[in-house]
Amino acid sequence: MARHRLFDEDILVIGLGRFGAAAAIEMDRLGYRVHAIEGDGAQAEKFSRRLTRVLAADAADPSQLAQAKPQDFRVAVVGIGTSIESSLLTAGNLVDAGVPSIWAKAVSAEHARLLERIGVHHVIFPEAESGNRVAHLVNDRMMGYIEFEDGYAIVKMSPPQEMIGFTLAETDIRKKYGVTVVGVKAPGEDFTHAVPETKVGRHHIMIVSGPSKLIEQLASRP
């Protein structure tokens, strides 16, 4: 039977060390088709049966990266941390390929500055941003994600289309998805506590709480 996918999209992950592997495995669990590039052949083989595709190659080399067709991906995550040079060259190759959303791990403030100068869209410090957490943020709907040990999460996210122009009572999100909209924020205003009469606009940001798996279902909606 075909696997149900919350996020029906192909994602490219480069580097399967601790951070990259955690991001890749969590994105696979969320339903993404994860394509990975890993320079260490043994490490690539280790994940070959767990991800959609794993290529043993050096992504810092444009000709080797080209085998993965990076231009076909909307999102790429660079988890390389052992070599700043490889990280920068790989990120630069992804920028040259025109990948719209590039996330890259930084090991220092200077590394982060150079990644941003190259054109990386999201720079991650693993001490603050785990690979697991980043996996939930790459879909562009969630802007913040905190998960607790019991599978409960609180997220900051943009509303799905089905909520826009309706009050919380009209959409009945709590009954439909099993999550609670705690607060909303309109541009230029502070967060306000959500009530049934709260009307959700296109540019609102919502604070949503509930079981992480149920929040993922809401975040997967167009």
UniProtKB/TrEMBL annotation:
InterPro entries, alphabetically? NAD(P)-bd_dom_sf, RCK_C_sf, RCK_N, Trk_Ktr_HKT_K-transport
TM regions (residue ranges): none
- Return the Gene3D superfamilies for the record: NAD(P)-binding Rossmann-like Domain, Regulator of K+ conductance, C-terminal domain
Q: Which organism is it from?
A: Ornithinimicrobium cryptoxanthini
- This chain belongs to the protein called TrkA family potassium uptake protein
Listed Pfam families: TrkA_N
Where is the RCK N-terminal domain positioned along the sequence?
11-126
